[in-house]
Amino acid sequence: MTLNRMEELKCDGTERITVDYVKGILQPTPTCDNWDQIWDFQARPDDLLICTYPKAGTTWTQEIVDFILNDGDVGRTQRAPTHVRFPFIEWVIPSIGSGLEQANAMPSPRTLKTHLPFQLLPPSFLEKNCKIIYVARNPKDNLVSYYHFHRMNKALPAPGTWEEYFESFLTGKVCWGSWHDHVKGWWEARDQHRILYLFYEDLKMKPKHEIRKLGEFIGKKLDDNVLDKIAYHTSFDVMKQNPMANYSTVPTEVMDHSVSPFMRKGAVGDWRNHFTVAQNERFDEDYQRKMAGTSLTFHFQF
Ligand code: A3P
Q1: Segments forming the whole domain that contains residue 204
Q2: What is the pLDDT of residues 40-94, one digit of tens each?
Q3: Which of 79, 100, 111, 178 qualifies as a cystine partner to 172, CB 3.0-4.6 A?
Q4: Is 301 contained in some domain?
């Protein structure tokens, strides 16, 4: 990244990141500037990649995976904040660093994070047959969560009003592109590659079942004690208090939790507190059209 760009990203309470396009997908400008290196990322066969559309439960899944890899040991999972334990490969943020550099410096076996849509995944992940965990969340809650995240995170553009953001999300004019294309792209790819496709709502409804599934995919058999321990320590209330998992270590100039906490509500169905009746009808009509023909289904509330 050039110094100019870094200067541009200095957050003084008013400045926001700029955005640009990579192959038709909106991305923070520093990601666009570094795209060639990101695309050339050299995966290793024992890399474990967690991939999501933003706000689909990435951090939660990262915490569960780290607990599984560390056999439920709380001390080891608290060795560093999430973004250090799981380099975010396409992310560049001056005060935190570059995910690419972090990943390249990390000893194997590595745990990595990306929000890239399937068509933008650096090809070496598939060439090396890496295990990939994809997590999807129902789009109404995903939208609400992303809106509040934009409000508190200066490393994303300002969201505008709720009404404006609603339209941006529906038209895919948000960072990492269209939610619909993202979840469908990864869904279609899941059978051809080593992809475990999970859902936020399942994690919420039956955490132990999903944690066991993750353990099997990773290749770790978890006894009941460890399973209980992981479910407890990765619950919303416990993670919210854990500085190594709640993003409170990120400078306030980037993430301002007083605007909206990173660990906000952690609920299924919160969209009902945000959507108007007209917005819900518009969303449903658009959803039917864009999701026609896919076998992918979501729980919008319990
Ligand atoms: P809300 O904004 O709806 O509360 P990501 O990690 O992909 O950025 O996703 C963040 C969303 O996941 C936030 O949703 C956050 O509260 C929620 N989340 C994080 N940890 C969670 C947990 N243990 N249980 C349930 N939701 C969790």
Answers
A1: 14-290
A2: 999 999 999 999 999 999 999 999 999 999 999 999 999 999 999 999 999 987 6
A3: 178
A4: no
With respect to residue 295, please indicate whether it lies within any of the assigned structural domains: no
Is the pLDDT confidence value at 110 over 70? yes
Catalytic residue among 115, 150, 182, 233: 115
The per-residue pLDDT for range 128-148, each reduced to its tens digit, is: 999 999 999 999 999 999 999
User: In a mutational test of the pocket of ligand 1, which residue from 264, 268, 271 has the highest number of ligand atoms less than 8 Å from its CB?
Assistant: 264
Phi-psi map region of 32: left, alpha, beta (phi>0 left; psi -120 to 50 alpha): alpha
Q: Which H helix or E strand runs over 241?
A: none
Assign residue 44 the CATH number of its domain. 3.40.50.300
- Which atom, in ligand 1's list, is nearest to the CA of 234? 23
Say which residues have a Cβ less than 8 Å from residue 149's Cβ, sequence separation at least 6.
54, 55, 156, 260, 262
